[in-house]
Task: inverse folding
């Protein structure tokens, strides 16, 4: 049996027992403690270690953008490959090397490319709503809607065949399940690597018009196949796991607050700020680690070179210093939340995620104005063991 206490994303991502959306009482208590308290932290690659908890809005923002605090994953060529120990895994790089790789990807995430994707996303949304309507009333929103929409979009964007979705969705679910034994993780990553290496080889020969192909066309001589594999796997996972959990959990949060749901459904002006508010309120990315590369001060607190920091976007985004009352308020004027991170590693896919959420969430509520849970709330299962918070299945009816 997995040691749940060690593998749960603890405690900077922990949610309240009474509400699976909001920070747990002990996380709020950490934020109220002076200084940057030391906490035990389990890391899927490095095992057990101590970290300084960074939970206040101003501190999290300062740490994200501090030049002497980096990701410092120190990819180890002798250790078995994992997503985190793989060239091209952007989140593991610092400084000029990070910038070199990030620029290649950012150059392909153009406004034009995203704008062109817009109609395709709306078509994907409509097709999935039609299919739900035809087979309903009643569906599990995760496999019927929340997962396939971002999966199709990221396949389209990258040039990955959607026919392979069952395999890559399974592999990324294993990768993000911190309870799986190490050996299973290594074998899983080997399969993931082999798949992407084959795709990269095909794209080298025929780049096509996807994003990875564009990186090859523009920077083919400056980037290795191994780095392209890391890019591809990071984008494939980041591209569908995050947005799909936002669609399902965002729907659930609105179902739990019927007046707010009605406002998002009925008033097109409310939808865009509501998406921003849901991103803040849910802060689904709970795994945000950093390491000091020199002795530094954060808000007057000394962090020694080499110390690990565990950042909580969830606690920061619920900090009364940022939002006053941190409860969900879809009418809130958008605030500068940290759900996409901040600084050098700030999410490269955030505009795409916004486009997808704005297309998927309001359209679902409008197509099924009577949308409601098909099971008692207490029966729902949450992704306790994942660096990305979400609901594993969401039975709904209409
Ligand atoms: C609602 C959806 C999403 C959320 C909440 C989210 C959140 C985040 C966060 C918090 C980070 C920073 C992590 C850190 O600093 O350690 C990040 C980085 C990143 N995200 Fe997203 N993300 C989302 C969607 C996407 C999508 C759709 C893509 C790609 C198509 C994407 C690609 C990336 C990449 C490549 C990075 C790494 C950037 C770097 O290291 O320079 N994300 N994301």
Result:
């Amino acid at each position: 049996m997995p040691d749940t206490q060690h593998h749960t994303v603890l405690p900077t991502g922990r949610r309240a027992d009474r509400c699976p959306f909001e920070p747990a009482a002990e996380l709020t208590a950490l934020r109220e403690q002076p200084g940057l308290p030391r906490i035990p932290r389990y890391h899927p690659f490095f095992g057990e270690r101590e970290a300084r908890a960074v939970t206040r809005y101003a501190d999290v923002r300062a740490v994200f953008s501090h030049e002497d605090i980096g990701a410092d994953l120190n990819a180890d060529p002798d250790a078995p490959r994992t997503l985190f120990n793989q060239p091209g895994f952007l989140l593991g790089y610092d400084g000029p090397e990070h910038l070199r790789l990030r620029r290649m990807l950012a150059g392909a995430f153009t406004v034009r490319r995203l704008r062109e994707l817009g109609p395709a996303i709306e078509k994907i949304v409509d097709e999935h709503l039609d299919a739900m309507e035809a087979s309903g009333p009643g569906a599990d929103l995760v496999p019927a809607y929340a997962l396939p929409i971002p999966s199709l979009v990221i396949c389209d964007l990258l040039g990955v065949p959607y026919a392979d979705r069952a395999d890559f969705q399974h592999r990324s679910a294993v990768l993000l399940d911190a309870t799986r034994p190490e050996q299973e993780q290594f074998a899983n990553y080997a399969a993931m690597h082999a798949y992407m290496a084959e795709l990269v080889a095909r794209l080298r020969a025929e780049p096509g018009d996807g994003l990875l192909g564009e990186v090859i066309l523009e920077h083919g001589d400056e980037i290795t196949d191994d780095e392209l594999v890391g890019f591809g796997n990071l984008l494939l996972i980041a591209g569908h796991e995050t947005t799909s959990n936002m669609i399902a959990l965002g729907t659930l949060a609105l179902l739990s607050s019927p007046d707010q749901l009605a406002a998002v459904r009925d008033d097109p002006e409310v939808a865009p700020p509501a998406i921003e508010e849901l991103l803040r309120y849910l802060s689904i990315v709970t795994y945000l680690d950093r390491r000091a590369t020199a002795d530094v001060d954060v808000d007057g607190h000394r962090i020694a070179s080499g110390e690990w920091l565990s950042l909580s976007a969830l606690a920061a985004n619920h900090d009364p210093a940022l939002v006053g009352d941190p409860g969900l308020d879809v009418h809130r004027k958008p605030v500068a939340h940290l759900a996409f991170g901040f600084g050098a590693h700030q999410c490269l896919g955030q505009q795409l995620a916004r486009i997808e959420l704005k297309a998927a969430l309001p359209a679902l509520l409008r197509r099924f104005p009577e949308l409601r849970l098909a099971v008692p709330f207490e029966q729902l299962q949450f992704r306790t063991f994942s660096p990305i918070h979400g609901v594993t299945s969401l039975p709904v009816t209409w």
